[in-house]
Protein 1
Amino acid sequence: MAVITQFVVVREGVEKMTFTSKKEADAYDKMLDVVDSLVPFLSASDVNLDENTCEQLAFYLANNKDELGNLLKGVVKTKAAEPKPKKKTVKQD
């Protein structure tokens, strides 16, 4: 018989997600904390968002918090430069 350790994230008595590592479970729990903070912040804005859209936007922002933080700091992500096509040399006879 195998023993499997699972870490379950529970919010308000509801099981949200199950993980096999504590690190992943803690990261997800922290992300949910950020969502819980963002929902009232977004709801208080002048933008007319219904509850579902507000929650989806909060999840998106929380999942992309590192990139969002950089954008708010003014750090612009540069696209990787595409390699220039090599010029063909033409032999003239």
Note: The chain is about 45% helix and 10% strand.
Protein 2
Amino acid sequence: MIKIILKKKINNLGNKYDLIKVKSGYALNYLIPQKFAIIATKSQIKINNEILKNIINKDKLLINKYNNYINYLKKKKIKFNLKITDTIFLIITKKIILDKIKKFKIIIKTKDISLNKIIIKKYGEYKINYILIKKLKGYLNIIVDKIN
């Protein structure tokens, strides 16, 4: 058995930066030549631990930032003004929401938000749930109003 550090996620083995033990032949003949792993020397383990510490700190900062966004957006109302017609058929998508919240100086990337397309068929107020990365949940208050 040999200790290695994974350089990428491998199904049924581990995630990137995991320190694991595998059979020597598997490591030396497959994982290391394919650049999926490196041998876990003392210096490599130390470097790996620093990388993991930095990742954890970045995640904490990102989670804190997104929690602030969620709390701020809960207090805001996002308004859509539509012309009077017999029927309304507005589909709220990620792009529409992200374009609207830019005015609050909040920058969220499309890939960082999960949202089912919401179909609005009437004027009124709606609460739209969303999920940001790291499974942070929030909601937006949407108002669909008439243009006179």
Note: The chain is about 35% helix and 30% strand.
Protein 3
Amino acid sequence: MSLYFQKMKSFYKSLVIGLVLSFPFFTAGAQSTQKPNIIFFLADDLGRHQIGAYGSTFYETPHIDELAKNGLKFTNGYSASPVCSPTRASIMTGKYPARLHLTDYIPGRSSKNSKLITPDWKKELPLGEITIAEVLKDAGYATGHFGKWHLNKDKKYKLGRPGDPGSQGFDDVLTTHKPGAGPKSKFDEDWHHVQEITERSVAFIKKNKDQPFFCYVTHNSIHDPEIEKKSLIEKYAKKPELKKLKTNNPKQAAMLETLDRNIGTILNTLEELELENNTLVVFNSDNGQKGSKEGKPLRGSKGDLYEAGIRMPLIIRWPGVVKPGTESSQLVISNDFFLTFSDLAGGISKEKDIDGVSLLPVLRDSGAKLTRESLCWHYPHYHGLGIAPSGAIRKGSYKLIEWFEKSAYGEDGAYELYDLMSDPGESRNLSASMKDKTAELKNELEAWRDRVGAQMMPKRK
């Protein structure tokens, strides 16, 4: 890391972290006063509808389902982007990808013959940004990153390289790739490094069992290429539910079973070490399933702003604080983890540009209300799956999607309005019949873009 970035990071860190450790940590009942450990499971390209706890009968996720049974399930949990790198940046910083100008997967793709020009966006998380790992490290946590990073200019990960996890607050680091994109796993038939990531995570937990730790378990699975043991794939190919939904994918199901089993291994480690009662566990995904946009129960997929692209599985377990088997319908987003984890560390001064809110009130009481009124998205890119540049806002039960090409040229169909309460599958566009609501949300979306400094797409001349 250059001397300039070291100085800038030190300066900003003093502003952001400020009051860490200066507030008493919230305790519940007879729980230990030691700060809680944090384990964050982040799956890749996993749709909400693929989890048993969210209604799937085809995919088998018993360990994830058990987390929901013993924790809090969010029914309106969103990723900050329909693709991976921006969502991961939002988790690390608490900021909207539009504010960071990191709005596509790295390195993205160019579009030379498009109607609009893609802005000159950032293809790495700037070293000047303060990450949640840095905040927790300064609060006395051991920090470990195991798996996919995807926040540097490329994936040539190397210990000590600026921009990789080690320069962003993580002490113990294993970076992995999808099959064929980097070094193979040390284990046979571990194409997506699931077993290797689990082994390192377990070792990290055992090593740091006597101090608070942040274990960031960020899998490459179930991202393509879809590779898994033949016997597991055949198991799902024979299931009678296969043909009920186009989103039922035997290869992804086999990969998900392996992922779920390894999550169980880490959860069992907590129990064996008697750490379960003082560990907050999060399960989440970075964006929706790659595949069919069938719309049952949600419409869309990875890469677009329909619900299945951004409404994610989000489960949090925290014994003694979170009431088992509860749900929350509050609007939450991946930006929120930053302040939530910061609060767990003992309190933090809020930097002015943090876009998330702390979820602690909802964790303590699933019926609690958050202060936010809306969530927004900004995707000024042409995705390889053929998805056009777009933006969106959700306020209450209403959601507006703007298609940038059409709005830039004043074409019909630039806006789609849905009432997600009555139409979660986004099948009835209300923009023509509810013009006042469409105009209201359009204005709010534009005002939000101005506030965060979102990069717009000029017309191609």
Note: The longest strand covers residues 37-43.
